[in-house]
Amino acid sequence: MSTFILLTITGVGLGAMYFLIASGLSLIYGLMGVLNFAHGSFLTVGAYAAWEASTHVGGGPGTKLVVATLAALAAGGLVAALVELLLIRPLYRRPIEQVLVTVGLALALGALVEAIWGFDARQFPVPSWLIDTTTIFGAHIPNDRFLEIATAAIVLVGLTAFLRYTRYGLIIRAGVENRAMVTALGIDVRKAFTLVFALGGLAAALAGVLSGVYFGTIDPSRGTSLLIFAFIVVVIGGFGSIGGTAVAAVVVGLIQQYANYYASSGLGDLAVVLLLAVVLLLKPEGLSPKVAH
Amino acid sequence: MTRVARLAVPLALMALLALVPQLPLDIPVIFNGPLDSPGTLGLLALCLLFAGVALTYDLLFGFTGLLSFGHALYFALGVYLTTIALTKWEWSLWQAVAVTAIAGILVPLLLGAISLRVGGIAFAMVTLAFAQAGQVLVQKNPDQLTGGEEGLGLNSDPLPDFFVGVLNAKNLYWLALGYAILVFLVVRSAVSSSPGHVWQAIRENERRVEVIGLRPFGFKLIAFVLASFLCTLGGIVWLLVLGTGASPQVTTANFTLTLLVMVVIGGAGTRYGALVGGFLYTLLDQRLGSLAGSSQVQDLPTIIRKPLSEPLFILGTLFILLVFFVPGGLAGLGRRVRLLRRPAGLEGAR
Amino acid sequence: MALIAVDDLHVHLGESHVLQGVSFEVPEGGVTALLGRNGVGKTTTLRAMMGLVPRRGSVSLAGEELNRLPTHAIVRRGVGYVPEDREVFAGLTVEENLRLAERNGSPRYELVYELFPELKTRAGQKAGTLSGGQQQMVAIARALLNDNPVLLVDEPTKGLAPLLVTEVAAALERAAQLATVLLVEQNLAVVARVAQQVVVLDSGRVVHAGGANELLGDPDRIRELLGVHGGAH
Lengths: 293, 350, 233
Fold this sequence. Notes:
The complex is a heterotrimer. By secondary structure, chain A is mainly alpha-helical. Chain A is 76% helix and 4% strand. In chain A, the strands form 2 sheets. Chain A has a two-stranded antiparallel sheet. In chain A, β2 (133-136) and β3 (139-142) form a beta hairpin. In chain A, α2 (39-55) runs parallel beside α4 (95-117) and α7 (167-177) packs across α9. Chain A is globular and about 60 Å long. In chain B, strands 1-2 form a two-stranded antiparallel sheet. Chain B has helices at 3-19, 38-63, 72-87, 93-115, 120-140, 169-192, 194-204, 206-212, 216-242, 253-266, 273-293, 295-298, 302-308, 311-325, 329-340; strands at 152-153, 245-246. In chain C, β9 and β10 form a beta hairpin. Chains A and B meet through α4, α10 and α12 of A and α5, α10 and α14 of B.
């Protein structure tokens, strides 16, 4: 029983990270029709900015982590906004080229990170209270899981509130449904595009920091390996839907944990990947944006 | 160009390429040693190999319009199945190749039949999913068969002598050249055949193909199986050319993406584009790394030197620039140059 | 003086040359109806004027050339658009649909609620759950919310029951008091009620332009230009 609880909470914790990456991906594809392969790079950039910042700051790991997170957010948001402005916006109405550019960017950014920091894993500043465990019903849960879940919950609430109550949120919700009609109301959607990219970058960077805490280290391939799962989550949860993404993220995290433990190690990853294929084959329209762009 | 002239150019090129191992020609900067040295021949073999593999991807993407993110799976199939057969099961080379070839037809037949039920982005994601499943399977190392993260060394005993050893670099070069020529001829004739015309029609407008009364599914499946089968053969050749064994890097999504980059750089859906793109990309990838170690680059300030020492950074940036300014790839560049030389009157006609 | 001048408008959709040099003028005030059989390019004309499809040629509003502008800029010059098939945002509430359309400081909610009181009662309802007629009201209300000098309206009565058709026609009359309306419509009874001028398209070109009453009083001419049923449902 205690193992089950540990697996469940770990699964939700993983799901929390997937959600953070997937939420940005989902909004970007839902609103802009761009399949952003560089999204994993936003995570990596954020994570390394965090790590780099933490090495220049004194104090205990707690302080380092806070500074690191701020650095990550700044880097992730900035890089994402710049990418949209400089690379994506000029290719408006050329969706294939937009996707290709994100592919090139993913390769180039990944190589850049590797060039600067090398491909060995780096130790991430983790305060000891996050490594400690809390006992729930006999299960010893590492505290970082709670941090991940709490962070994702806050982001989920924040994003939902943003979409529900602000003007840009309204524009984004409408734009996901029918981008052309939004422009036909006199609204310049391109600003919303940059905003959505920046939000995605912020969330991905946050996921990068959390992954550093979860795994204890950070390495250049982290972004790519988590990106695959984010794609799976977005496809299962539905593009442009934050609530759907959250649910799908938790489901994927749980399946991964349960299958890896109860069936055999590595089978969880396989199960999740095959789940993607199954969902796509049964519900291919889940992938088409609501109205053809 | 007359019919004869059209044939003459590729034939001359093939003859020239075949003669390379006999040429003690030195091309500085681009190559480390003279053309007939084992190092250079090995590099050229790799370039020719990927020229062919890129063309197999172009058959899917450039000619039939099927964006697959899982092409690496079939390459990996060729690599891993042959290595396992030779090393773990201790079969002879011909047995291993035959069985791998058959697998290279059956596996894409099955997976393609499933994946092609959907189109567009959904198809791309399903192919990605299957390739990921392959990657996970390799990592999991069932029965210690695949060697997991470390890869699997190749047992070269069953290999015929003429493929093994530094002195036989030229044989491996000719093998790779033969592969590239084979892929070129097969793809060329497939594309100009009547199913080939249907593929290109599907790429343009699938709806219209249905309206004519044809069912695209069957045609797409043929293209898929053919492209995947040729790619599996490429995996076998890669294994022989490198001679070291199977490595999990060929199972990654990144690998498929580099194939996409090769095709786009050269020009998707053109006669020679993918070949040129695959050749150039591989050459740059291999040589840029050595250039970074050269004294001129080492003297550059760190902020320039570090990124330049990563070939993938240069290639990725080059790719982005190409997408922006030359979307048709290098082949498109060629066309644009020809258009510029035309008399002004035709400029408006597009 | 004409408020809107369309000159030599060409649109290619795929391989089809849909608009082959459309030219006409829309005088200021009142309703000009754009008529024609199915498929002649009426909707495409409006979409081209809105910048929603790639086009060649000239579209000017009060002398200002609109052709180089992107859609949102055209709308900001004062063009309200009611598309064929309404295109309300199903996931947003009625109130949100209207709020999205607000462009400046003084949206005309009183006018809109006066014309369509139902929208006020259903303000919190998701637009996707509305009936076709109610969605049409939202679409028209959106365009009327701002004091646009020009309204482009595409088949607002399509698929509506007769009672609703009357309601829409009344709304159009009211709108015509406040703006210049270019109306694509198949229902000749509605055209007769609200329009002063007509422009008729055939095969991507303008084949007739003139007074509404003249054309509508001439059944032979109607049959010639618009077919047996006058293009109506």
